[in-house]
Amino acid sequence: MTTIVAALIGAFIGSVGATLAEAAIASRADVEKRRQAVATRYLFQLQDAVESLWYRLDNAAHHAAAEVTTDAYLRTSSLYALGRVLCLERVLVLEGVYAELASLDKDLAEYLQREGLLDRAFARIRFMRYDRVALAETLLQREEGSFRPSTYLEFRAHLEELDEKGQRWRTPAEQAVADLLAAPGSMQALLDATEGLARRISAFTGFACSIRHGETARGGAAGTATNMA
């Protein structure tokens, strides 16, 4: 009788243990699935945009970009690179991603939301918060119930189509970019901030950060700015 009871107890404990183990495995799988969804839908894009902005600024600050491009090209491409980062950050707010991200990586959610993360860099060039919001929302495209940033060609076309009222948001954004390109000290602060942001996002996505000091383009060789992205 004792043997039978012991066997039943052992079977029960084994069953409970197996159930708990299965639940733990399922929970981990669910977390990983949610993590991948956030990374794929949002953070891969943000990481790419931040790294692209870093290279755009680094080319201008350290590789004589102004000598091998026109002023108009440098201003417009820099405006797009900056706007794309701000747009993707805006998407995180508009689509309520921070709540989901906080449940997956609270430190990263707080890091992305931390007041002053990039503001200290922008403060030197007087690019005010709602001027940045205006630039971000200029790039927003609504597609199949969600948001995405404009492509570069869409952005160029939009700039050409702006009427006089629509041009009002453009003046502070273009002035901020001009101030950045003319002030290496201010640009360095933004370079440092964007590099830190890219590496922090990379730790979440698992996608290697492409930033390499001394290179003129992602995966390019060090030296002149002739190979700029």
Series of secondary-structure elements, N-terminal to C-terminal: HHHHHHHEEHHH
Total number of helices: 10
The oligomerization state is single chain
Terminal residue distance: 79 Å
Task: Let me know the number of strands.
Answer: 2
Shape: elongated
Percentage of residues in helical conformation: over 70%
Going by helix content, strand content and strand pairing, the class is: mainly alpha
Biggest sheet, in brief?
A: 2 strands, antiparallel
Q: How much beta, percentage-wise?
A: under 5%
Spatial order of the strands in the main sheet? 1-2
What integer value in Å does the Rg equal?
24 Å
Q: How many domains comprise the coordinates?
A: 1
Low-confidence segments: 219-228
The chain-level mean pLDDT equals: 80
What does this structure look like?
Helix content is 72%, strand content 3%. With 229 residues, it is mostly helical. The chain has one domain. Strands 1-2 form a two-stranded antiparallel sheet. A hairpin with a 2-residue loop joins strand 1 and strand 2. 29% of the residues are buried.
